[in-house]
């Protein structure tokens, strides 16, 4: 293993200290407060009261929108993480190939990352407006469609748009992580595979995927967390309308806290979300890491 | 690395000390103002007030008071305020539409503690009534707006119909417009978005002798009249008479459609003409009363926002603080400042002293002031108003996707009572 | 690949050549067919409150029939009269009825009619035909005298000719949708705008051309009215040329290369990259063209212009007057500060994780990941209370710490990967030479790990630059707002000012994009390290 000798047993912990301090103060402490709040009575205006025997959690589970929203959250996380991983992978493969203008293409792919989610969401919200949105404008003026189309005819379609924007902004992250993995693969592997007579798909399956898997693992865990917690896209485009049918867990709890004045249940929901994430990300990491060790 | 850490900690400490010391000096009032339009921030903090700004003018007139004034967008207002309240750092003065939840928690100062009698007498009495809970006035109105029906006269003339005055006539008019334009023009605008769906609710129930309150002043939303009214509104949507996405098409979208001649009739606030002018739409329109259900009494909708002051028990000199808040209000409502504030975004005033000047500058104001007299307002003084407000929006949105209005309103009523 | 006998090569080449020429010929046939059906509403009249058979109906019908007769007489065209009655019972129980009359005329045109007319779509069709002919000639020339030469032995000129034929085939293929788009524009879009009272420059000339094309110049002043009712029918024979053209191109590739798979894969790759780039750049195009429009044009419901009629650069000045530069500066301070702190804390932690064996490594890793599991939205109350306690409310410094902390997981993950991928031999040597661990890291490791560090720096910078929710709540003084919060002032209670919103959004995006472009090379290198050993 690639280690250096340690002089004192406590030395590593000193190295970790600044990071631990920073996170403890600015992340763990607020998390603690949220845990405490989730078990306290909170008034409509936001005044924090006494411990209320998990009434917030009961209220959260009884929330009429809870079922729909859990379903939406699952669709949202699975489709955004899944499709952006797939498309990001394809993009990385394409950007790894030799062609003229590759550097320009790489710079362009990074764009969505460099723009804040609030801005991205506003732009897409504007683009898909049926009455004056830019998508209709471009398609009409290029002669591709004959009359303006209502791009958000039903809430299912609106939710699909939201997922689409989510995928759009996540692709660069995956693409660059995979691209990095691809670049580090030794060409000798491919040459050996070619000698063995492997075709494109065999090489992809037997060489490329196993070798970029480690970089994908952590990237996917972080992605699941970021996407689960993603808030501006849905909030900007539909605000969960109609009647929470396009909400995910995070936007629902925001609406509950700040629109419906149910601050206690909203905090409980965030703790529930935390638990779900812990389980999902934990299981995912355990499974993938165990496989790696084998 | 350790040195770096020590430095960071030292920095933290030093900052903490600075902040602790800074508090003892002249009175600082933290003020949160809602952002009404493109000019709000400029008026308070930029140079939108004849080359200077409100805060500078105020601080010049009252050197012993410092204003820490912040303009927050409506989108973020509740988030910002409630987060501050949770952390015991409520603002001193707040501009918002709701106030009852703050009263319930005992966070507000009664208006009589800080507002001068002279100023208090200046407010329209019907407005002040809307801010009274348990016989105490907790907030003062900062401005109001009234809603009316706007119709595109060109479209109506081309189709050959009159301005509808009843719901039945409205349906006929919508059908005629749909037939004539083959769907190119939406007859009727409905905004049931999460931001303002309660307005749509009031447009229909108040014109069907329904409402939010029963005879005893209790919140009752599931009366038969209300059910009928909302079923009618949803019926308009289901028959294809309205804009296609009432749950996500906001007032801006509708106003733009109206301006572009894509929407024939719309219920909108009195600022619509100036909006259309700002965006250089050329559309011929007329205003009219909202259509009513046959036999029902008409009910115009008015909306009012408020200014309120929060308690701060930790402050050493309460009297001085109250006086400072009073000075802020008196300065704000003085005609030389207030007229500019109200007319800047085309709102309607809340105090008598500015009426003369406003009518003089724009005679059409008088008509709106008359409408305002007959307006009904949301029952904001009811402590459960917020539940009803979000509840009716959700009911509308559920109904748009096929829910049963009666059952939904019954559920909501159970939630309000429970 | 190598085919053995000249006979086999000859057989394949002959087949491909015949197929290609056949495809080209069929395309020409399709173009020559009278496939463009136009149905024109010559005259339309709607009459409200009219019942079938009543006086008003008779009067209107007589008027319509006279119109139809007059038109037939003037142009010699056959017309048909359609009548549509909408009957309803209104709320008062009265019957209402609306009658709509339409006089229609149908006509057909061939591709050659288009080519002869001065329509833009005619020129496109001409170009398509010329491309196809040139491709066929080129393919023939490339074949001449070398029908039985195996591909590896083919001389470069012949191979170039055959590839050129394929390329021209591709151009012809792309011209088909362009032609259809151009038809849509001329026959539907611009006419619709003109009849809605919003003619664009050149509409007059277009109408004149269409008059000549469809009515033989007889329509005159009425042409706009007539064109308002034009519908063109299905174009399936034209769509049939698409597979023909694909087939032609493929045959040409087969003749040049034997195995077309490589060329196809290449084309697919380029197509994918082009589509990807177009999709990604699209929102930025929207930002640019909307950011510099006038307020009225941002919500133009008739979609009159793809680009602003007048570029309003004054928008930039307006948003700067409303404090955007100040917000940008705040964002810059915030991001730089957060990045610095995140790296200062992250580098040692990542170093320990990469280089040292100690109990609790996994615990720390779990701790880091867990710390990311709450959305900042959720933590608002907690963070705000913390900031009150630390007296960091409403200060950039507070935001800097928060952003640094929320980016620790990412930073540590990337940095650790970088460090692990670098051999520790040199550090070990340095340690034996008496260097302390700290100086071994500073002098030996960090210079080598620079690309990875730069990458981390960029990521944290961007995350901090884009943070919105926490800043909204924490910052109350206007002069302390970062750009993401500052731009919310452009969507207020009374109006959304799209043009300012997007102009400001552009200003907020450009610095990051420039930063990214400068550093793109390092990025991939740094991620290599970060990713693989993650």
Please characterize this protein's 3D structure.
- The complex is a heterotrimer of chains A (294), B (418) and C (534).
- With 294 residues, chain A is mostly helical.
- A two-stranded antiparallel sheet of chain A has the order 1-2.
- In chain A, helix 3 runs parallel beside helix 7 and helix 9 runs antiparallel to helix 12.
- In chain B, 52% of the residues are buried.
- Chain B is globular.
- Chain B has two domains: 193 residues, D-Maltodextrin-Binding Protein, domain 2, CATH 3.40.190; 180 residues, 3-Layer(aba) Sandwich (D-Maltodextrin-Binding Protein, domain 2), CATH 3.40.190.
- Chain B is of the alpha/beta class.
- In chain B, strands 1, 2, 3, 6, 7, 8, 9, 10 and 11 form a nine-stranded mixed β-sheet that branches. In chain B, strands 4-5 form a two-stranded antiparallel sheet.
- About 3% of the residues of chain B have low confidence.
- Chain B contains 19 helices and eleven strands.
- Chain B starts with a helix and ends with a helix.
- In chain B, 47% of the residues lie in helices and 15% in strands.
- Chain C has 534 residues and is α+β, with helices and mostly antiparallel strands.
- Chain C folds into three domains: 176 residues; 67 residues, no CATH class; 219 residues, MetI-like fold, CATH 1.10.3720.10.
- Chain C has a four-stranded antiparallel β-sheet with strand order 2-3-1-4.
- Chain C is flat and about 105 Å long.
- The C terminus of chain C is likely disordered.
- At the A-C interface, helix 1, helix 3, helix 4, helix 5 and helix 6 of A face helix 5, helix 9, helix 12, helix 13 and helix 14 of C.
H-E string of chain C: HEHEEHHHHHEHHHHHHHHHHHHHH
- Low-pLDDT parts of chain A are none
The CATH superfamily of the largest domain in chain C appears as MetI-like
Category from helices, strands and their pairing of chain C:
alpha+beta
CATH class of the largest domain in chain C: Mainly Alpha
Strand order of the largest sheet of chain C: 2-3-1-4
Helix fraction of chain C, binned, reads: 55-70%
Q: Outline the low-pLDDT stretches of chain C.
A: 529-534
- Biggest contact: A-C, 111 and 116 residues
Main beta sheet strand tally, sense and closure of chain A? 2 strands, antiparallel
Mean pLDDT of chain C: 84
The helix-and-strand class of chain A reads: mainly alpha
């Amino acid at each position: 293993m690639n280690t250096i000798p340690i002089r004192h047993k406590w030395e590593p912990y000193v190295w970790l200290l600044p990071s631990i301090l920073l996170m403890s103060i600015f992340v763990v402490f607020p998390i603690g407060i949220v845990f405490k709040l989730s078990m306290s009575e909170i008034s409509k205006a936001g005044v924090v009261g006494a411990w209320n025997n998990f009434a917030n959690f009961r209220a959260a589970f009884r929330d009429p929108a809870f079922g729909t929203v859990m379903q939406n959250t699952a669709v949202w996380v699975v489709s955004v993480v899944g499709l952006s991983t797939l498309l990001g992978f394809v993009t990385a493969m394409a950007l790894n190939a030799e062609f003229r203008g590759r550097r320009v293409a790489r710079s362009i792919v990074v764009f969505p990352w460099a723009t804040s989610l609030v801005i991205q969401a506003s732009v897409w919200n504007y683009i898909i407006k049926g009455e004056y949105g830019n998508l209709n404008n471009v398609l009409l003026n290029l002669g591709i469609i004959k009359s303006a189309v209502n791009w958000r005819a039903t809430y299912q379609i609106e939710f699909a748009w939201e997922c689409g924007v989510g995928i759009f902004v996540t692709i660069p992250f995956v693409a660059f992580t995979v691209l990095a993995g691809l670049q580090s693969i030794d060409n000798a592997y491919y040459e050996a595979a070619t000698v063995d007579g492997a075709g494109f798909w065999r090489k992809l399956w037997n060489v490329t995927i196993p070798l970029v898997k480690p970089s994908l693992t952590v990237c996917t865990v972080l992605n699941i967390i970021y996407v689960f917690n993603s808030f501006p896209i849905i909030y900007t485009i539909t605000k969960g309308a109609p009647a929470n049918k396009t909400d995910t867990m995070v936007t629902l709890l925001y609406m509950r806290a700040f629109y419906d004045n149910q601050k206690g249940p909203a905090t409980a929901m965030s703790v529930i979300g935390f638990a779900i994430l812990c389980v999902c990300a934990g299981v995912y990491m355990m499974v993938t890491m165990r496989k790696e060790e084998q | 690395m350790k040195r770096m850490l020590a430095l960071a900690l030292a920095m933290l400490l030093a900052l903490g000390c600075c902040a602790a010391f800074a508090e003892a000096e002249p009175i600082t009032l933290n003020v949160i103002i809602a952002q009404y339009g493109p000019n709000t921030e400029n008026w308070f903090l930029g140079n939108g007030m004849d080359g200077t700004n409100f805060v500078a003018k105020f601080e010049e007139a009252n050197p012993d008071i410092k204003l820490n004034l912040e303009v927050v967008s409506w989108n973020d207002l509740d988030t910002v305020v409630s987060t501050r309240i949770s952390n015991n750092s409520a603002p001193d003065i707040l501009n918002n539409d709701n106030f009852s939840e703050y009263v319930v928690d005992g966070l507000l100062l009664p208006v009589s503690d800080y507002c001068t009698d002279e100023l208090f007498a200046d407010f329209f009495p019907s407005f002040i009534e809307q801010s009274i809970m348990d016989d105490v006035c907790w907030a003062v109105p900062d401005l109001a707006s009234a809603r009316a029906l706007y119709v595109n006269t060109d479209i109506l003339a081309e189709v050959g119909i009159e301005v509808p005055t009843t719901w039945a006539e409205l349906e006929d008019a919508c059908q005629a417009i749909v037939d004539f334009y083959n769907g190119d023009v939406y007859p009727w605008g409905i905004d049931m978005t999460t931001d303002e769906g309660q307005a749509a609710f009031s447009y229909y129930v108040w014109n069907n002798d329904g409402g939010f309150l029963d005879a005893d002043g209790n919140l009752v939303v599931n009366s038969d009249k209300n059910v009928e009214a909302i079923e009618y509104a949803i019926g308009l949507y289901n028959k294809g008479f309205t804009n296609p996405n009432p749950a996500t098409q906001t007032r801006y979208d509708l106003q733009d459609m109206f301006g572009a001649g894509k929407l024939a009739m719309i219920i909108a606030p009195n600022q619509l003409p100036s909006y259309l002018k700002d965006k250089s739409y050329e559309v011929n329109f007329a205003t009219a009363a909202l259509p009513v259900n046959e036999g029902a009494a008409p009910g115009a909708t008015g909306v009012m926002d408020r200014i309120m002051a929060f308690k701060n028990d930790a402050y050493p000199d309460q009297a001085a603080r109250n006086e400072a808040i009073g000075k802020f209000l008196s300065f704000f409502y003085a005609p030389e400042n207030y007229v500019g504030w109200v007319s800047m975004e085309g709102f309607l005033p809340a105090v008598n002293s500015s009426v003369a000047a406003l009518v003089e500058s724009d005679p059409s104001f008088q008509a709106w002031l008359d409408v305002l007299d007959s307006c009904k307002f949301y029952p904001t003084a009811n402590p459960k108003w917020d539940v009803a407000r979000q509840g009716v929006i959700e009911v509308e949105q559920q109904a748009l996707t096929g829910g049963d209005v009666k059952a939904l309103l019954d559920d909501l009523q159970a939630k309000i009572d429970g | 690949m190598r085919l053995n006998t000249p006979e086999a090569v000859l057989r394949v080449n002959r087949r491909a050549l015949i197929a290609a020429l056949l495809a080209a010929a069929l395309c020409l046939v399709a173009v020559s067919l009278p496939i463009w059906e136009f149905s024109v509403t010559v005259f339309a009249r709607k009459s409200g409150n009219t019942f079938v058979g009543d006086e008003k109906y008779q009067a209107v019908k007589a008027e319509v029939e006279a119109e139809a007769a007059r038109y037939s007489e003037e142009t010699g065209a056959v017309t048909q009269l359609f009548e549509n009655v909408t009957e309803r019972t209104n709320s008062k129980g009265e019957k209402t009825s609306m009658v709509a009359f339409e006089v229609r005329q149908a006509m057909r045109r061939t591709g050659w009619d288009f080519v002869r007319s001065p329509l833009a779509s005619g020129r496109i069709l001409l170009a398509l035909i010329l491309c196809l002919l040139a491709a066929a000639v080129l393919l023939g020339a490339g074949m001449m005298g070398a029908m039985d030469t195996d591909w590896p032995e083919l001389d470069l000129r012949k191979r170039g000719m055959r590839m050129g034929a394929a390329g021209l085939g591709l151009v012809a293929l792309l011209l088909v949708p362009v032609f259809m788009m151009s038809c849509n524009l001329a026959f539907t879009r611009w006419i619709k705008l003109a009849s809605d009272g919003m003619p664009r420059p050149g509409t007059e000339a277009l109408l004149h051309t269409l008059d000549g094309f469809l009515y033989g110049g007889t329509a005159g002043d009425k042409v706009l009215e007539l064109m308002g009712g034009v519908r063109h029918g299905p174009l399936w024979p034209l769509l049939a040329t698409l597979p023909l053209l694909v087939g032609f191109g493929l045959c040409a590739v087969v003749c040049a290369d034997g195995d077309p798979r490589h060329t196809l894969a290449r084309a697919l790759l380029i197509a994918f990259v082009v589509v990807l780039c177009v999709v990604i750049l699209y929102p930025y195009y929207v930002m640019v063209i909307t950011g510099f429009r006038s307020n009225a044009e941002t919500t133009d419901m008739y979609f009159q212009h793809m680009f602003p009629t007048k570029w309003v650069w004054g928008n930039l000045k307006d948003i700067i007057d409303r404090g955007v530069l100040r917000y940008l500066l705040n964002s810059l301070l915030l991001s730089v500060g957060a990045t610095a702190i995140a790296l200062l804390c992250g580098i040692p932690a990542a170093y320990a994780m990469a280089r040292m064996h100690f109990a609790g490594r996994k615990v720390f890793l779990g701790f880091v990941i867990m710390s990311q599991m709450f959305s900042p939205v959720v933590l608002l109350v907690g963070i705000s209370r913390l900031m009150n306690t630390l007296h960091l409310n409403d200060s950039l410094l507070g935001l800097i710490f928060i952003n640094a902390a929320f980016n620790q997981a990412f930073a540590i993950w990337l940095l650790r990967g970088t460090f692990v991928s670098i051999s520790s031999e040199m550090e070990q040597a340095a340690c034996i030479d008496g260097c302390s661990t700290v100086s071994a890291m500073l002098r030996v490791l960090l210079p080598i790990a620079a690309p990875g560090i730069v990458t981390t720096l960029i990521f944290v910078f961007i995350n901090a630059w884009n943070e919105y929710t926490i800043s909204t709540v924490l910052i109350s003084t206007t002069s302390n707002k970062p750009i993401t919060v500052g731009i919310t002032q452009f969507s207020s209670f009374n109006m959304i000012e799209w043009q300012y919103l997007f102009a400001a959004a552009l200003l907020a995006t450009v610095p990051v994009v420039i930063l990214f472009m400068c550093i793109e090379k390092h990025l991939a290198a740094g991620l290599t390290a970060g990713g693989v050993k993650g």
